Structure formats: C-alpha cells, structure tokens
Amino acid sequence: MADQKEEMRDITFRVLRFNPQVDSKPYYDDYTIPVEKGITVLRALNYIKEHVDPTVSFRAFCQAGICGSCGMRINGISKLACTTQVWDELEKCKTPNVIKVEPLRNMPQIKDLIVDMDPMVDKMKKYSNWIESTMPESKMGEKEFLIAEEEFQEYDKATDCILCASCMSECSILRANKEYVAPAILLKSYRMNADSRDGIHEKRMEALVQDHGVWDCTHCYRCQETCVKNIPIMDAIHGVREEALEMRGAKDTSGARHAEAFMDDIQKKGKLVEATLPVRTNGLGWTLTNLLPMAFKMVLKRRTPPPPPLVKPSKGIKKFREEFQEMSEHVKQDQKDRKH
Amino acid sequence: MSNRTRRIVNTNLGEPGMKRYAYYLSCINEAMTKEVDRSIDLWQKDLDIEFVKMHESVCCGGSNLDYVSPKHFALVNARNIAMAEKLGLDLVTSCNTCLLTIRSAKQKLDASPELRDEVNGILKKEGLEYKGTSEVRHLLWVLVEDVGLDTLRQKVKVPLSNYKIAPFYGCHILRPSTVLGKDNPLEPTTLDLVIDALGGKTIEYEHKNKCCGFHTLLVAEEESLNVAAEALKEAIDRNADFIVTPCPLCHTVLDGYQSKALKQANINKSIPVFHLSEMVGLALGYTPRQLGIKRHIVGGKA
Q1: Which end of chain B is flanked by fewer CB atoms within 10 Å, N or C?
Q2: Is there a contact between B19 and B146 (Cβ–Cβ < 8 Å)?
C-alpha cells in the first residue's frame, strides 16, 4: 500500500454561469484544475472558487449529504455535489474529462448554480405539509404522544427526505407545468397523512386531489431513480392515491375515475377497454371537444373500431371472474379485520 | 382461418434450436397498435424464436391496479405468470408498462410467502399455481440477450444504413431500476445496440430516456402533450429520419397524438415513429405494408 501513488488528473468543469442582473442569457465557463482521485464535485467547486474564480456561485453547507443544499445537475443528472465522486463522473462524460455542472431544473435560477427554493416552500404550505395535532392544546405537555413502531415503519423512509429538490428538477410533469404539486411535496404529504398524531388529513387531501395535484403524476419514475436518499417516492405517490380513492368526496375527479376504470374493465372483460376510457374519465363533452378529430383519424386508420366499441372478453373469462370475485371477498374481510 | 393457424402454432413444440417464450397479449396491442404483434408474427421464425400467445391472460392493471387494489393486482399477475410457468416458458411482453407492472407483481409475490399462498389458494381452482419459476422479460431484452446482436447482424437483409434513427426507450423498461435492472436507467444502451446491429445510425439526444406522457393523457392532457412535444422536437431538431420505441404506449402518444402535441408547441413539422418490432421487420426484408406501418397516424418514408 505504501508505494501506491495518489492518482491525479487535469479535469475540466464546464459550469453554467448566469447572473440575471448582468447577463442576457446563460453561458458556460470551463475551469480545468488538477484533481486527485477521491475528491467530490463539491470540493472541486470549492477549489475553483478559492483558486481560480471567486465569482462562481453555489450553495453548500454541511458537505456531508445531510443538509441537501448542494443539489445541482452533474453531467445532466440532478444530485448532491458533496456525495458525488469526480472519478465516478468521468465514466459519464460526453466529452472525455469534461464534467458538466448546471443548476437544478424547474426552479427559477438566481445566479449560476443557485436556484430559488421558494416555490417548493410555497407548495409545502399550499398542501399543509405539517402536523396539526389531534391533541387539544390544553392537554399538551401533560403526556407523551407515543407512536407505535409499526406505524413509524410506514413512513420511516419518507422521513429521510432532505428537501434537496433533485426530484423536482427531474420531474417530467413539473417541467411541463410549474403549477404541478411535485414529487417532494407528495412524499411529504404521504408522510404527514400516515402519522396518527395528525389532525388535518382531510384538509391536505382536499388540496391534493385538485388540478395539478396527485393525479397528474405520469409514473416516469425519474424522481425515484434520482433520489439522493433512495426513497421510493412513487410508492408514496401511490399511497396518497390509495387514500384519495378511499376518501369519500375525493373520488369524483378524472384521476380517480381513470384509475378505477382499470379495475372495472379487468373484472368484466379481463382487458382494458381503451376506446371508452376517455368518456369514462372525463365525460362525453370533454371527449367530443378534445378527441373527436383524433378519434376520426384513428378510426380511419383502423387503430380503434367505430362506435360502439365492442371488446371481446379474454378467453376463460368466466373462471377468472370467479377468482376475481373471491379476491374481493378477501379484501372485504381484510377491511373488517382492520376495523376491529 | 387465421385463428386456426394460430392455434396450430400454439401447440407446436417447436423445432430444435428454436427458443420459445410465453407471449403476453397487451391490451393496447390487441386494440390500437395491432401492427406490433403482426410484425412479430412475420419475423419470429427468421430469428429462430417462437412466441406462444397466452390467449387466457388478462390485463396486468397498467400501472394503476397496484394502488387501486394491491391484492387483485397480485392475483391477476400471479395468474398471468402462472400460465407461462405451466408452459415452462419465460413470459415476454412487448409493452413497457406491462413489463414493469408484471415484474413488480412478481417481486411482491416472491418476497411474500403469505401473499403467494393466498393467491395460489384461489388459482388452484383453475389448476394454476404461481411458483416463481418464469422470468418476466421484454421483447427488446430477448433480442439483445437471447437472439444476440451478432445473429441480428447476420440476419439483416435490408440494412437500415440510410437512416438516422432516434431511439426512444420509454420509462417502464428502465425505471425503477430496483424492479427492472437490465439497462442503465438514466443512460440506456440496449435499443441503441439493436439499431446499430440492424445497420442504422443512432441519434444521440437528451430525451431518449425521458417520458412520453402517456399515463396522464386523459388526466392532464396539456402537460402530457408538452412532455411528448419536447421529445419529438429534439428528435426533429437532430434531423432524425424516424423515432423507434419498444413501447406501444409511447408509440400511441408520439404517433397518434403527435400532430396535437406539436401544434400545441407551435412546431410545423412531423416525424414518423416506428415500433421496435417494425424496425426489426424492415431490416429483415419485410415491406411496410406487410408490417402494418400504413396504420400509423403520421405517414412518412420507409
């Protein structure tokens, strides 16, 4: 081990620069510095700031993957600079030895690698992502509010979130519409909903089932795949949806109707009846105004049959229906058991 | 007539050296994108593979049933997989979402003996049992892993060398990697390799591993079309001759909804979108008419 020399290499960091007060548009600056194997991207950026260009701006506090402040896109993927090894990134460079460093997406850019986190904070408020205790104020301090371990297990992973906003930067729908609730917010909502101390469950859910809420997630799994804490964010989103379906009043949304149509079709036909899905999700009016020209083309190209859309059930559907029904009995029993 | 031929093929034990798979019939391919299975039917023998169609399988739940009713989700897909197991074959699908959905059900079943017992208690009335012996795989994986790139290269009759092709993977063949785990979830290569083996030139573009927006088309249409338009725009800007995708759902958005998406984004161009199965068919010498490419909404050269 003693004769093992530290590996050194000249590496270029191509940093996206932008100061809206001075620059008309963003541009890249290249900084080539000697880097030792084992160094993180954040330490390289610190070196650049100290020795090459003090005007490069980025956020970084704990430097240990705890605070979530150094989220940025490194070679195109959102992650923490402080837990990303330069050497690991070398394999991913489009141009050899050139590492691209850019700010997170889907948030307003303040300067260089610094983005405005206020939209995230505002959405946390909009969806009431905190606990308002079920214990009356007068009783507080008299006794502990204990949580069973099994309950905590349900949202243990969700509490690992450090609000770095990498998931928001990667989100397909947030990119398409900044009003969308966003994955980090849904994760937090799931965590609060699952907490038995929480008393504002319904208020939160009411907001979540509105437009731009939980039903707008398109299941691309980018949030989960890039989460710096490996949190299964989609499970949490599905968890919120499950609750939306259970809640009376929250069912009358296009998202809920769309989801439940799958269950109905499978039970009846063994397959999805795509042709009537738009009508069942959004009603006849919406379908006629939104999809009529396209439906016409689809029928013309024989991609969808002309109305009425007759779908032959799967072979052996009779047996299958019985099995499906039997499972429904199991589910009913489960629900009864849970109540007791 | 066609039904009868199909049944004869199903009971065929296959020629020696022929690799066989239990082919899962996806709702979308049965209803809207019929050209996918039509193409596969044409060329499967050319590649020494045979797909045995599972006519009694049911809808996988399409990335919705899992949270609407987790137990029905487990039952439905245990049944689908058990049918493949009864044939002693791996289950193969040509739809990304079916792949992810059935694989995640398998993951849950394999992790929970209680759940397995519960569904098997119901399935035994039909003479079925979920054991966990069949793998759940995608057509693209079969081409890369079993047929092999060298064989593909050798079998090409009409190399796609005149075409610049933009690969569009779709999400549910890549992510979450905890369920799929075949390709790099953020920098995939399998489809690129197939294009290369068939003689085509692949286009590098950022959107190749991004989302098409399919799953919110009916709930958040504007957002979905924005997502699709970004991918289409980049492929057009990079001068791709066509986009190819291994997923019929991505195809439905990128082809069927293309004019609407590009109109919303004020783009006055278009680009043809092919299924993986059609691209393979073209390279193996079948005509666009045979492959059913005329059924696409966006026309174009081929």
Answers
A1: N
A2: yes
Give the residue among B33, B58, B298 at the shortest CA–CA distance from A265.
B58
Distance CA A315, CA B23 (A): 15
CA distance linking residue B137 with residue B100, whole number of Å: 9
Please enumerate in sequence order all residues whose Cβ is within 8 A of that of A281, keeping only pairs 6 or more positions apart, or say none.
A254, A257, A258, A261, B218, B219
Q: Comparing A143 with A197, which gets the higher pLDDT? A: A197
The average confidence (pLDDT) of chain B is: 93
3-class secondary-structure state, position A133 = strand
In chain A, which residues have their Cβ closer than 8 Å to the Cβ of B125?
A: 319, 322-323
- Please identify, among A215, A248, A281, the residue that sits at the C-terminal boundary of a domain: A248
Output the pLDDT for position B12. 39
Same domain membership, residue A28 and residue A101: yes
Length of chain B: 302
Residues A166 and A239 in one domain: yes
Q: How confident is the model at residue A313 (pLDDT cuts 50, 70, 90)?
A: confident
Strand, coil or helix: B75: helix
For B:149-178, CB contacts with A below 8 A are 171-172, 174-178
pLDDT of residue A309: 62
Percent of chain B with pLDDT over 70: 94
Residues A233 and A155 both lie in one domain: yes
Per-window interface: A 268-307 vs B, CB < 8 A: 269-275, 277-278, 281-282, 290, 294, 297-298, 301-304
Is A258 in contact with B218 (Cβ distance < 8 A)?
Answer: yes
**DSSP, res B24:** E
CA–CA separation, A124 and A156 (whole Å): 19
The strand pair at A114-115 and A109-111 is best described as: antiparallel
Determine, for residues A219 and B171 on separate chains, whether the beta-carbon distance falls below 8 Å.
Answer: yes
Pairwise CA distance, residues A52 & A199, whole Å = 53
Contacts of B126 in chain A (CB under 8 A): 316, 319-320, 323
> What CATH number did the domain enclosing A65 receive?
3.10.20.30
Contacts for B159 with CB less than 8 Å, ≥ 6 apart: B198, B199, B200, B283
Total residue count of chain A as it appears in this document: 340
Could you give phi then psi for residue A32, rounded to 5 degrees?
A: -100, 120
Asked if the bond preceding A308 is cis, omega within 30° of 0, the reply is: yes
**Pick from A156, A146, A11: nearest CA to A88:** A11
Residue A29 has pLDDT above 90, yes or no: yes
CA of B9 to nearest chain A CA: how many angstroms apart? 17
Alpha carbon A95 to chain centroid, angstroms: 30
* Number of domains into which chain A is organized: 3
Please give the radius of gyration of chain B, using alpha carbons only, rounded to the nearest integer: 19
The answer to the question of residue A151 being in a domain is yes
Mode of pairing for the β-strands spanning A27-36 and A8-17: antiparallel
**Predicted local confidence at residue B176, as pLDDT:** 97
The answer to whether the Cβ–Cβ distance between A271 and B68 falls below 8 Å is no
Q: Verify that A109 and A195 share a domain, yes or no.
A: no
| B172/A323 Cβ within 8 A | no
Residue-range definition of the domain harbouring residue A137: 118-248
Asked if A203 and A278 sit in the same domain, the reply is no
Q: What was the ipTM of the complex prediction?
A: 0.92
Residues A155 and A197 in one domain: yes
Residue A85 is classified by DSSP as B
Note if the pTM is more than 0.90: yes
A324 and A206, same domain (yes or no):
no
Q: How far is CA B200 from CA B148, B168, B260, in A?
A: 16, 14, 29
